[in-house]
Amino acid sequence: MACLLGTFLCAMLMSPPGAAHAPTIAGVQAAFDREAVVADGKHDKDLKITGLECQPNQPSGYFCQVNFVRTAQTSGQVYLDAALVEQGNNGNWKLLKGLCRRLL
Question: What residue segments make up the domains of the chain, in order of their start?
Answer without folding.
Answer: 22-97
